[in-house]
TrEMBL record:
This is Neutral zinc metallopeptidase. It comes from the Bacteria. It holds the Pfam family Zn_peptidase. The chain crosses the membrane at residues 21-41. Its main location: membrane. InterPro entries: Uncharacterised_pept_Zn_put.
């Protein structure tokens, strides 16, 4: 992906190299796997993590420390900021075309653990969007895990797809879709509530595809192979692929994010159409 030369964004926060005091959710081992299954591409489920696991971290505080970023880390940060700028430009245009105003979210890079308005999290949580502070949180170690443990192809556009997916959750917050989905889940069985969660996640994939469509149309930034990188990442984070990898069998009624095939299909629908009005996943899965 062609990404150099972008303007800087006032909504980019690089907190890597900083370790905050206070309780932090334990990562790694079986707990890390549990968090990953609960919250991979966390969407708006990050609020679930602290009430479930914070009690396991009493007395786990540490003094705040800071280190200088390496040259490679600084370059990574510039790339992430460039993608954020692209999402600001594209969604600003889309909202304007639909007589709305786009409120830009913040994107926060962190290392190991971080405190958010949705609770504490670690890199094991996966990238997630917190609607309470309207910020996307990412530890870039996640992308190495995506390749080594879940078989994703990797590449810069795989990272761009993940960011675009999380920004998609911000779009859902602005449009009121997320709040409506939570209302629809009230009183539903776990299986039916999960289907609504799947719809929310697939719509975020669709919005990632819409962003990709506009990004290419407006700026022609895509390189050969970029779409394949995105599809490889989407395949790796399908519920069926994760369950098969982690537990050796698949339980469809427990899906909360969608199958690999669904995630790829909805991303491609957004990419090919570029039309946000074609993303009513809720109507199609009920």
């Amino acid at each position: 992906m062609k990404w150099s030369g972008r303007r800087s964004s006032e909504n980019f926060e690089d907190r890597r190299g900083m370790s905050s005091g206070g309780k932090t959710i334990v990562g790694g081992g079986i707990i890390g796997v549990i968090i990953l299954l609960l919250n991979l591409f966390g969407g708006e489920n990050a609020q679930m993590l602290t009430p479930i696991l914070e009690q396991m971290n009493q007395g786990n505080g540490a003094p705040t420390e800071q280190r200088d970023l390496t040259a490679a880390e600084i370059e990574e940060g510039k790339f992430i900021e460039a993608i954020l700028v692209d999402t600001e430009d594209v969604w600003g245009k889309i909202f304007q075309e639909n007589n709305m105003q786009y409120k830009r979210p913040n994107l926060v890079l962190f290392t190991d653990g971080i405190e958010t308005a949705c609770g504490n999290a670690t890199s094991a949580s996966g990238p997630f969007y917190c609607p309470s502070d309207q910020k996307v949180y990412m530890d870039l170690a996640f992308f190495e895990e995506l390749k080594t443990k879940f078989g994703a192809q990797g590449g810069d556009f795989a990272t761009a797809y993940v960011i675009a997916h999380e920004i998609g959750h911000h779009v859902q917050t602005l449009l009121g879709t997320s709040a409506k989905m939570r209302q629809m889940q009230e009183g539903k069985s776990e299986a039916k509530a999960n289907k609504l969660s799947v719809a929310l996640e697939l719509q975020a994939d669709f919005y990632a595809g819409v962003w990709t469509h506009y990004n290419q149309k407006m700026k022609n930034f895509l390189d050969e192979g970029d779409i394949e990188e995105a599809l490889s990442a989407a395949h790796a984070v399908g519920d069926d692929a994760i369950q098969a990898k982690i537990q050796g069998h698949i339980v469809p009624e427990s899906f909360t994010h969608g199958t690999s095939a669904q995630r790829k299909a909805w991303f491609m629908k957004g990419y090919k159409s570029g039309d946000i009005n074609q993303g009513d996943i809720f109507a199609e899965i009920n």
